[in-house]
Amino acid sequence: MRQIAGIDFEAPSLEVARALVGVIVLVDGVGGRIVETEAYDAEDPASHSHGGLSARNASMFGPPGHAYVYLSYGIHWCLNLVCREAGHGAGVLVRALEPTAGIAVMRQRRGVTDERLLCSGPGKVGQALGISRAHDGLPLDHPPFELQPGSSAHVVVTGVRIGISKAQDRPWRFGLAGSAFVSRRF
DNA sequence: CTTTCGATGATCT
DNA sequence: GATCATCGAAAGG
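^ Those are the sequences you sent over. The predicted structure of the assembly is below.
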């Protein structure tokens, strides 16, 4: 069982995406609590893994519990957490964090001071955490990554995914109810 | 408040 | 050559 911070990364992406809400993710000690995720799967037309293995998505077909990092729109680095069994091609996009650690560093990297704007979107998360191609494929249970279990009970809300042109109807977006740090209201 | 649009480059057909 | 799991600024109501 590939379990990190109480998360079974061999589970389907829908389950992992829901379970990750509340978990703390750090890169070199900088990060926060996950408040928004999206699930992607190989049988999902919106997923980068749809259509099979390629150079870009190779990490999605690697072992679960590792990172899949890609460059979005030529500008933004986005962080996914690979799940399900190796070779399947499933993952969870980390869309937003509630900053808890290294906030000064994140303010400097982002160029803004409002904590609600530091990690409220997948591109912002990448910039705030210093994510780059170098993080693609790295295991989540070793430095620079660190995952910590979520502390208290909380309510998870769902919605349709954002910014995709295929399979737009699937409610595969998950968020922490009432959080002020999500990319968009649910 | 909302919608529109440019930036910018890897990836895929 | 078209598309893209985005963001921020600008323009419009």
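Chain A has three helices and ten strands. Residues 38, 40, 46-48, 70, 72-76, 78, 80, 93, 95, 121-124, 161-165, 183 of chain A lie near DNA strand C (CB under 10 Å from a C1').

Shout if you want it in another format.
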